[in-house]
Amino acid sequence: MGTPLESRTEQAEELVDRLEEAYPDSTISLRYSNRLELLIAVILSAQCTDERVNTETKHLFEKYDGPEDYANVPEEELAEDLSSITYYNSKAGYIKDSCEMILEEHDGEVPDTMSELTELSGVGRKTANVVLQHGHDVVEGIVVDTHVQRLSRRLGLTEEEYPEPIEQELMDLVPEGYWQQFTHLCIDHGRATCTARNPDCSDCVLADICPSEKGDSEIDLASGEHW
Fold first, then answer.
1. Domain HhH-GPD: where (predicted)?
2. Hey, which residues are catalytic here?
């Protein structure tokens, strides 16, 4: 198994340094051209791949232009437009309800605070963080998706299991200037190497500092289960 650095702060900083070198162009993979499209894309991305979302939103964003279109369309029609997305019925409702609230309470503009964003239907802290960071250039926290959750546990940065407490721990460990990039680096590495089911530890730039490394470790700290 790898040997973690002496402190979790050092471990987090080393992770950022190494992954920045490995993925110098790391950035958000969802495609959008304005804040509303970003919000919708992130809502759709829950438990769905960004690749699938990008395929679906290509025609969605051609059909709908602005919150009025989403608010006024019958929910069944919007759901049909999203039918290849996981949980498309629920997400159609979230999008329609959110756009109604954006029109009624925010003058048609996507809000720019955590509290206002998380009042929108289907928007939790993770989604709000993405919209703030990439739509408003406001970095209030760290987006904890499944990749960040998995890597943070495997690398011994946290023992927490759920996104919000993981985020709070990471905010104390990761330098604030890297809060946004930390997520993208974890996503790229999680897709390329540190996958959920069969991570390629033999070709991992973090293997020597990873307490879950499969060479010797018997336990995947992300799941708590034996390899």
1. 44-192
2. 126, 145
